[in-house]
Design brief:
- The protein is α/β, with parallel strands linked by helices.
- The chain contains 8 helices and 9 strands.
Length: 245
């Protein structure tokens, strides 16, 4: 597709207990200028939050009338993977980006992330927290685990990513329509990567790009959710989806 063929960016935002951050995050998403005259829709999926996230979500369309919203309220907490699956099923845009509901990732990076696809160079773009952009200094063991998971994923997918676990992933609609997510929780990141590596469009492998992004990670006291159990689950997911679909 040519740049002029892309009209709408769908921004899929899984939400779980993010009442403190959600409105500020949406303000940043809506206020970020998009390249190529893209319009935007925000698809927010409340994963049965225990706080007031759903109440906050319901106020957003009125507070930000310049954007289009779809709001999904799940009765049961199923995890990030299930939330993305539900969100992907509702997208109407030509391009799709995953956005976490906290403030760790900055929508100011959207132009860099969208650039390779708009320029006709890529079908998928990954952000990377580890290739030269500013990031908050936090947990050594988290980064070590991320490096191990990314290396294992690369070995089994034959990709050379630097940050497989990153939130920011951008896809063309054609790619999203062919993703069938099975992992309900944080295993969704290696699952998506394994399926991207195996997917073919018109008989050719997908063109995958990576670009540096800024990162303002949270501490556990500030609400960080991922832990060592998720790393163990990710290893099993990497192996599983290397050999199965």
């Amino acid at each position: 597709m040519k740049t002029s063929d892309f009209k709408m960016l769908s921004i899929v935002i899984p939400v779980f207990n993010e009442e403190a951050y959600l409105e500020r995050l949406v303000e940043k998403v809506v206020g970020q200028p998009l390249p190529g005259g893209l319009k935007r829709e925000l698809i927010l999926v409340n994963d049965a939050s225990k706080d007031a996230s759903w109440k906050v979500m319901q106020t957003l369309p009125e507070k930000f009338p310049e954007a289009s919203f779809q709001l999904i309220n799940k009765a049961d907490n199923e995890g990030k993977g299930a939330a993305l699956r539900d969100g992907f099923a509702r997208v109407t845009g030509d391009l799709v980006i995953i956005q976490d509901a906290d403030l760790e990732y900055d929508p100011a990076d959207y132009p860099k992330l969208l650039g390779p696809i708009l320029q006709g160079k890529a079908d998928v773009v990954y952000g990377s927290r580890f290739i030269g952009e500013p990031h908050r200094v936090l947990y050594f063991w988290h980064q070590l685990a991320n490096n191990i998971l990314t290396t294992l994923s690369n070995m089994l997918t034959n990709l050379n990513l630097t940050d497989m676990e990153v939130c920011y992933k951008v896809f063309t609609r054609e790619v999203v329509d062919r993703l069938r997510i099975k992992s309900p929780r944080f295993g969704v990141e290696p699952e998506i990567t394994a399926k991207i590596a195996r997917m073919r469009l018109k008989g050719k492998r997908l063109r995958v790009y990576e670009t540096g992004i800024s990162y303002d990670g949270r501490t556990y006291e500030e609400g960080k959710k991922i832990g060592w159990k998720d790393a163990v689950s990710a290893i099993a997911t990497i192996i599983r989806f290397r050999f199965t679909d």
